[in-house]
């Protein structure tokens, strides 16, 4: 080969490569046509025996002790009820499930039931790409609309294009509820002579009393970025009203982070930092270390979710209590919370009717009892469960949140990237790298960029 | 009998005639056949994925639905988005902790140990220093996260000796989070460098040092004149491994800080993972990954150049490094001015030394070759 032909060949190879790169656009074979057959008009088959032998592939992420047993128990009961159906359980950790789910959903041979996180980055994107089955037809048949309150259902509802969150069709059902409330140390409150606070003023008074007595007012560790959202949301709930927080959380156009109440909330949390109301060195404290320190008597309050229910109950027994966040300006005890990762049906599933029956089965009244017995918070019927101690207090708080419509969404639901934006910004704020005004302006800019005015 | 011998000779003759002239492997087509199995493995597991990533990097794609062609916009974002650019700057800072410090420390430790000669407990010491290499990085990260905890052993130590002002939440501190992560890299990397250098130095003939000492060379002079040039190959290997480790840091950040506080410890690999799997920006992730790949490639090439440039003048003791340093140039020995170290007069082909051949003249190095 002469030098020029070699050069030519190289050029041709490069050109081909570029052409190939341009030609094979990733994911271009999927236009999301699947949204057509949402079965809204078709009759839903509920008599599973007519389906013949079915192997139902279920992907869940309930790998922790009590939760894993709870699923196993329900699967067994389901198989006993419907001998022609075999449940093939695939259980992965939350992170592993999330990273493999994208590939699994686009596969022609998709699983039949999956736990798909209801955030925009996951469920929202799956819905937008037509990879999840809308469940409205099944919900009609099985009566899910009556069984699950709207505040719960809306957390798994999206528009067809996945752009609008909290409205549209139902895409999944959760087994458990979760709220970020206020745990308190009973012996320490008794010692200080204060009652569990029900209003903002009482809460602030309690913080001062605790601080004066040399006790740590609020146990907090913010090394794991997610922790900051819970702490900030807890304070925000005492300044803003439910509607404003929901608009911000669901990323509805027209909302703003620059309301005067947001500034007050942000300045308040900063004043707590300045007054030393949080754990010394909270910026470097691991989340798990933090609540473990609480169980060992460091701190009289702990702002945390009901996912710690079983752990705190084990460690502290009668010494720990749980209440909804104190009522602030709105007069309501608003509480950040939501649902455990909902079970959904992939659009590519071959056994959708059996899948819907499965989801109904693991969320029915008997299943809720199983959930409660496993030490968790059932998403519905919590008030009908037998419980005592901390579990009873959590069930009661959840029941009250549902009855009085107190639930507000996590702030990171707003946009696909808002989790990163707000967690980093809260670390910046609490670490003194941004002042409250700068913090809110930053959030507003990022928010408007994604959501639009 | 004789006829058989004749046939055999003839056959051998024929075989010799059939074997084409030229170096083994000729003709080229045959050579390609030899490398085919390796090539298939390479193309399947490296070439195609790389190509596919290059494709992804030109699109905006969430990993699920249809994609939009954006040309080089993703690459532009890598260089203009302050968060992504910051990740690369953090990786460069980590190179100091992962590569520069461990290599320097490893050299110092190994050289000291070689001078010390037979030392009690040398084996144990070697094992202890190398041990971090054996522990999985995730375990290392979890252990150090505990050490750095606000009430952890490190702060307790500082408080115990009255340095309360030094104690801080290391991983949550805006100034100290990145150095804290980097220091773990130093702790892990030093053992590898140390063992590599120790092996390299063991091959240097003792006579070189004896000669140097007879000529009155100071320990410092000995180090720069004999030890350092002898381990140049090991140096290249150590630098290559540690610099790559620094650039591709993921596990430490993932476990210890998740990129925080703020974005203070965000690094490219973590950003790739975050964009691809957590926020569904596969295009940006692919572009980042490719830029990172290119950076690693360039770093490796540069480091190997440094390792190679001394081939002509390395002392005999360093012969073992050649397999490691993958020499691919066969030019004349490189001029002495290319060498690091303060002694341009080492190469005996060079100009006459300016200072009189006195106490410090290390010319004996040439004799050792």
TrEMBL record, chain A:
<dbReference type="Pfam" id="PF01547">
    <property type="entry name" value="SBP_bac_1"/>
</dbReference>
<dbReference type="InterPro" id="IPR006059">
    <property type="entry name" value="SBP"/>
</dbReference>
<keyword id="KW-0732">Signal</keyword>
<protein>
    <submittedName>
        <fullName>Extracellular solute-binding protein</fullName>
    </submittedName>
</protein>
<feature type="signal peptide">
    <location>
        <begin position="1"/>
        <end position="22"/>
    </location>
</feature>
<dbReference type="InterPro" id="IPR050490">
    <property type="entry name" value="Bact_solute-bd_prot1"/>
</dbReference>
UniProtKB/TrEMBL annotation, chain B:
<feature type="compositionally biased region" description="Acidic residues">
    <location>
        <begin position="344"/>
        <end position="358"/>
    </location>
</feature>
<feature type="region of interest" description="Disordered">
    <location>
        <begin position="1"/>
        <end position="24"/>
    </location>
</feature>
<feature type="transmembrane region" description="Helical">
    <location>
        <begin position="276"/>
        <end position="303"/>
    </location>
</feature>
<comment type="similarity">
    <text>Belongs to the binding-protein-dependent transport system permease family.</text>
</comment>
<keyword id="KW-1003">Cell membrane</keyword>
<feature type="region of interest" description="Disordered">
    <location>
        <begin position="311"/>
        <end position="369"/>
    </location>
</feature>
<protein>
    <submittedName>
        <fullName>ABC transporter permease subunit</fullName>
    </submittedName>
</protein>
<dbReference type="Pfam" id="PF00528">
    <property type="entry name" value="BPD_transp_1"/>
</dbReference>
<keyword id="KW-0813">Transport</keyword>
<keyword id="KW-1133">Transmembrane helix</keyword>
<feature type="transmembrane region" description="Helical">
    <location>
        <begin position="176"/>
        <end position="199"/>
    </location>
</feature>
<dbReference type="InterPro" id="IPR035906">
    <property type="entry name" value="MetI-like_sf"/>
</dbReference>
<dbReference type="GO" id="GO:0055085">
    <property type="term" value="P:transmembrane transport"/>
</dbReference>
<feature type="domain" description="ABC transmembrane type-1">
    <location>
        <begin position="88"/>
        <end position="303"/>
    </location>
</feature>
<feature type="transmembrane region" description="Helical">
    <location>
        <begin position="87"/>
        <end position="111"/>
    </location>
</feature>
<dbReference type="InterPro" id="IPR000515">
    <property type="entry name" value="MetI-like"/>
</dbReference>
<feature type="compositionally biased region" description="Basic and acidic residues">
    <location>
        <begin position="360"/>
        <end position="369"/>
    </location>
</feature>
<feature type="transmembrane region" description="Helical">
    <location>
        <begin position="123"/>
        <end position="144"/>
    </location>
</feature>
<keyword id="KW-0472">Membrane</keyword>
<feature type="transmembrane region" description="Helical">
    <location>
        <begin position="31"/>
        <end position="51"/>
    </location>
</feature>
<dbReference type="GO" id="GO:0005886">
    <property type="term" value="C:plasma membrane"/>
</dbReference>
<dbReference type="InterPro" id="IPR051393">
    <property type="entry name" value="ABC_transporter_permease"/>
</dbReference>
